[in-house]
Design goal:
It contains one helix and two strands. The chain has about 90 residues and is mostly helical. The chain has one domain (about 10-80).
């Protein structure tokens, strides 16, 4: 999982401001931003796992369909090759 670094310094108009020296309202907004950033990383990581799992499942489905079609093809070829009792 990607490491998230919380914002501790805001740079506005090329001037740095330590978050802990700003008002409680701004500190609360920055903490909310940091929290959302952490949640975003978790969700992106989870999405990456889902995408990989779907790709694996998709390949399994394709392989199963091919195997069934191959088995059906073999059974119909066997039926055509066997002598009929007339």
């Amino acid at each position: 999982m990607q490491k998230v670094v919380d914002i501790k310094v805001l740079t506005i108009d090329e001037k740095p401001y330590a978050v802990d020296s700003l008002s409680e309202e701004i500190q609360g907004l920055v903490e909310m931003y940091n929290d959302w950033q952490r949640q975003e990383v978790v969700v992106r990581d989870e999405l990456t796992r889902y995408i990989a799992a779907k790709e694996t499942l998709s390949q399994q489905i394709i392989n199963k369909v091919r195997a069934e079609l191959s088995a059906e093809g073999e059974s119909s070829a066997d039926a055509e090759d066997s002598p009929s009792a007339d």
